[in-house]
Design a protein that fits this description.
Layout (H helix, E strand, L loop, with lengths): L16 H6 L3 E7 L5 E7 L21 H4 L1
Length: 70
Amino acid sequence: MPGKPVVVEMNPDNIPEVEKKKALDAVNLIELKRDGRVKARSCANGSKQRIFLKEYDSVASPTVSLEGLY
């Protein structure tokens, strides 16, 4: 829908404790290449996620979208 933001900031104090416990830990790896470029990747610790998945849910790791990263 036009005019609606995809990503909005959230105050961590307003997030319920239950939702905070479901949040995955993220690791951001940043490298400076020999040619001067900076490359980065993010990884999540998915082991916390498994306790919330149903038996038939997928545990695949697709590439994250930019919106999903924010």
